[in-house]
Input
Amino acid sequence: MSILVNKDTRLLVQGITGREGAFHTEQMIAYGTPVVAGVTPGKGGGWGVGNTPIFDSVHEAVSATGANVSIIYVPAKFAPDAILEAADAGLPLIICITEGIPALDMLKVRAYLDRTASRLIGPNCPGLITPGEAKVGIMPGHIHTRGRVGLVSRSGTLTYEVVYALTLRGIGQSTAVGIGGDPINGTSFVDVLMLFEKDPETEQVVMIGEIGGTDEEKAAEFIRTQMTKPVTAFIAGQTAPPGKRMGHAGAIISGGKGTAADKIAALQAANVRVARHPGEIAELVAERM
Amino acid sequence: MNLQEFQAKRIFGQFGIPVPQGEVATTPGEAAAIAARIGGPVVVKSQVLVGGRGKAGGIKLAKTPAEAETVAGRILGMSIKGLTVKKVLVDPAADIRKEIYLGFVLDRARRRVALMASSEGGVDIEEVAAHTPEKILTVAVDPCLGLKEYQARDLGLGIGLPKEQWGAFAKICQGLYECYMGCDASLAEINPLAVLGDGTLKALDGKMVIDDSALFRHPDLAAMRDEDDETPEERTARLNGLSYVKLDGEIGCMVNGAGLAMATMDIIKFYGGAPANFLDVGGGAKADKVAAALRIILSDPHVKAVLFNIFGGITRGDEVARGILTALKEVPTQVPMVVRLVGTNYQEGRAILAEAQMATAETLAEAAQMAVAAARGAK
Output
């Protein structure tokens, strides 16, 4: 077991003919991910990297190939439309890598998705990986090993850092999920924690948060009241000044809210062990193995 | 991106919100001419992107054009929280009976645009939130329906407006909602919305923050960017596709990825140093981008050491190493550098740097300690 993606994943790539889309499709195929279709409107009937058939619409691609997960690499201007198209085609899982989607677009997209059965991961995220089975995203595959630690994070490279440290210690991962750094996203910490709690393969969880919003506080409440598996956390941005956006659109302390200190306090109150710096995360996990 | 008061109020006016018919002056003479055109008492308001202008003496009443010239002369050129006043807004003075707060924000937790209103207008809303939170009323807007009239009426009732004013108040709320959505704002605030002596409502002060991600579809708004909105370094960074925030420490950092960049700042602090900046070079950074980033970091005279932390995925270690060397050729410096490269092509990268005799580190913790020591040694 694992969560969300595995060897039964049949992946569709929206934006497969773009520079990013083509490059990462190649990487995902090289990792062994079953990529079954690509979509680029106007290029249907052609073939993309790895001899992947290209379709004009997601609907067409799904009915021809039985794709069950979509990953989106289209530019920010067109990404909201791409997400809605995937949801309309009934795909249960949609991953949006695209960075820089206007917040109000995501607000409407999310409100629409809440009325469908589709789950969105991202946007502005590295995707997710179940080591050895499916890499659905832009993370370097080779740093991962299969195991029993689940990861969920708002960050990309910081997650790689932690995964790599775990792998070097011989600690494998069940699934690593990047939920993205935008203020309005599709999947929250709580959503993923809930899945890890139910997943028999996952024995403990690492949660990597950052300043901005209250998603970590909600996660702390969930962990305190409903989780039995141990959680180790890190919150990035302890030295970030208020009122300044730290790269990610969602990483901002505004009106005195969303500070690292508040999040750390909430997590500690839920018996979560919070690492003081990223190097400590793997140590804390190892102590619990 | 933050807009100045006069810009926000002009936009409010376009959405049917009553605003004062003021104008902007850059010299005392212009201020006098505007006051003469307005006729009657005016208020001269400094246009700077910080709060607390009134307390700092940046907002003054003037009864005559001559007086407007004098106060504009005093305000123009003054420094408010480190920003020099280059423009003043000259508005007709208003006969204020009551001050209301009205503001739209993005409520992340509820995933809704929320309208907040308070009878305690004219003061910092965060102060009201801290001391008398019960005086702030909020309604959440369904993105499919928009702000409905009853929601605005409820707020009007809740903050104690008499029923004669509910209609005008609701119209302003709906205008501000259209403005918020139409401009892709992340904040649109009227503070105060004044009830005047004749019972009408007017937006006397305005604040707008625009979502940077949406500027591609608002070239008119993008063109309004005020030079005070960012430091020259932040501007250079933005134009180079870099994300940079200046801090007041002494260890410059260059990192790929926002989360890792924040974590790198945190670990510097953990080992007793202080980060000089946040800098995310982004994914797939090529040599020229790395060079631009290094120039920005080194332009800060407080920087005593530089730490590179690159976790290669799409970003290639050898590209970054070459970028560092290119930049160092262009910007010779004595500032010590510590480089930590992991991931794609890291061996090639490290070999390139070793040839140039630069310090390389294996782990982030080790790199941070080396950078802190180097900064101390350089003092």
